[in-house]
Write a structure and sequence with these properties.
Radius of gyration: 22 Å
Shape: globular
Largest sheet: 9 strands, mixed
Strand content: 15-25%
Order of helices and strands: EEEHEEEEHEEHEHEHHEHEEHEHEHEHHH
Distance between the termini: 17 Å
Number of strands: 17
CATH class of the largest domain: Alpha Beta
Number of domains: 2
CATH architecture of the largest domain: 3-Layer(aba) Sandwich
Number of helices: 13
CATH topology of the largest domain: Rossmann fold
Helix content: 25-40%
CATH superfamily of the largest domain: Glycogen Phosphorylase B
């Protein structure tokens, strides 16, 4: 453990927490989102070990071992490499990873630490340890996602029994999880305003977007079963005068199922640092989410990110977007292709609406990842003190 001063929100607050060991289902270098925002802040004050899912090799000759990757602020990404024979033998794979982790803890002199879980499936490889605190940061209802392990729900119940604190990625998720844990707290998606605020100034156009005509209607995020590809196709067909820019990696769905049209431009995944340069060139930003089990509990981080960039936003009726953004009339909500088209038409003139911009900025002033992180730290420190 080491002490430091938290200066993210302009104040000095004593920080005293053990080393952080985070078990995540998302690769650190994939898409920059909630885990990266929070863990990078912890790493400025103490040691952080970000344990990813195992990497399976195509042969059986590989001996189980850990790969350690250094990231900014000294954060260490920990990846177990396992032979192919363990790919479909979960108990054996968990046992191999558990053995590797116990050895790694000894090598790193990890004696005072807390466990932070993003996936209940990590319980299988993290047994036999004695964390000073266990936190479950439930950012999504993972059991509702495509290809979710069938045992995930049972593992989550086990994690609820182990966890000292439960944080949720939104209010809808909180309403579900507070019934299952006595110390649950909602922490909706937040914002790095300075980063996305760059998009309010003229920025050099990225080469792959520069040749796309205006008006541009954009979306960034993971392109998976949560994206309403039928809605995207209907909008592109009904409005050939608009150009739809889709940024993000395609995962868990067949790329061939995506709508193909001359006015839909799939630009692939982009680095977090690049996103403002794309947003600066959009006329409207969208949340093109489908209405299905995988979106029932989501709280999209991109909602405040779009707004911080100064972009008018149109969204399908995701509950954590309707509340508060739709109710505050900061984001337009549209359920059908016709409604969405009309909302985009309105949004194309919204940047001239000084009242909307002021109300948006007033709301954004109340949230930030720094504030979220600080509030989490205070809850964690109080819980450790109480123990």
């Amino acid at each position: 453990m080491r002490s430091a001063a938290a200066n993210h929100i302009g104040q000095t607050t004593a920080y005293s927490l053990p080393d952080v060991v985070c078990f995540a289902h998302l690769h650190w270098d994939f898409v920059w989102q909630r885990p990266q925002h929070l863990m990078s802040r912890f790493a400025q004050h103490g040691r952080v070990f970000y344990v990813e899912d195992a990497f399976y090799h195509d042969n059986d000759q590989v001996q189980p071992h850990l790969e350690i990757k250094e990231r900014p602020h000294g954060l260490k990404v920990v990846v177990a490499h396992l032979p192919n024979r363990l790919r479909h033998d979960a108990p054996a794979a968990d046992e191999a990873q558990n053995t590797l982790l116990h050895t790694f803890f000894q090598e790193q002199n990890l004696t005072s630490y807390l466990f932070w879980y993003y996936t209940p499936m990590a319980l299988g490889k993290s047994g036999g340890f004695a964390p000073a605190l266990t936190v479950y940061d439930c950012m999504d209802e993972l059991a509702n996602f495509k290809f979710a392990p069938p045992e995930l729900r049972a593992r989550e119940q086990e994690l609820f029994r182990k966890a000292d604190l439960v944080f949720t990625g939104g209010h809808t998720l909180y309403e579900a999880k507070r019934q299952q844990h006595a110390d649950a707290h909602p922490f909706p998606s937040s914002i790095d305003k300075d980063h996305f605020g760059q998009a309010r100034q003229p920025l050099p156009e990225p080469a792959d977007q520069a040749g796309i005509a205006h008006p541009r209607v954009g979306f960034f995020g993971v392109v998976d079963e949560r994206l309403d590809i039928e809605l995207l196709g209907q909008l592109a067909e009904a409005h050939p005068e608009w150009q739809f820019v889709i940024i993000g990696p395609v995962v868990k769905i067949d790329p061939d199922t995506l709508p193909k049209s001359a006015n839909i431009h799939y630009l692939g995944g982009k680095d977090y640092q690049e996103l403002p340069t794309y947003l600066a060139g959009w006329d409207v930003a969208t949340l093109l989410f489908a209405d299905n089990e995988s979106t029932k509990f989501i709280s999209p981080t991109k909602t405040p990110e779009y707004l911080a960039a100064g972009r008018p936003v149109v969204s399908t009726p995701i509950r954590d977007v309707v509340r508060p953004y739709g109710e505050l009339k900061l984001v337009q909500i549209a359920a059908t292709a016709n409604e969405f088209g009309r909302a985009i038409t309105t949004a194309l003139t919204q940047t001239q609406d000084a009242d909307w911009q002021q109300r948006t900025d007033d709301y954004l002033a109340t949230i930030s990842w720094d504030q979220t992180w600080q509030q989490m730290v205070e809850l964690m420190q109080a819980r450790i003190s109480a123990k």
